[in-house]
Amino acid sequence: QVQLVESGGGLVQAGDSLRLSCAASGRTFSRYGMAWFRQAPGKEREFVATINLSGGNTYYVDSVKGRFTISRDNAKNTVYLQMNSLKPEDTAVYYCAARLYSGTLHPGDYHYWGQGTQVTVSS
Questions:
Q1: SS3 54
Q2: For 19-55, what is each residue's pLDDT tens digit?
Q3: What does the alpha-carbon distance between residue 95 and residue 74 come to, in Å, rounded to a whole number?
């Protein structure tokens, strides 16, 4: 069982930066591929980024490439999402998710989810 708790969301202006954190419980964090998803009002949950077990491989949706960086610290059981050059279209609730052994782009593949943190970017 893994419990995930996100933090770091907030209200910022376009062009600003935020760093989201997702703290995981348990001693097996390093066995889980991790990902960030987001969901804007009235829209489906959207893949943002994923990172493999060691943190050596990452993958991003095209709309955030070059602006967002996913990373993890297995010693701290935490995954991060550094978001730079934020745009109003990045406004959403951001969720972290864990999938045993590897991440994917599909939310239905993930075993555990956090409660989400709101990110609002004003123009």
A1: coil
A2: 999 999 977 999 999 999 999 999 999 999 999 999 9
A3: 19
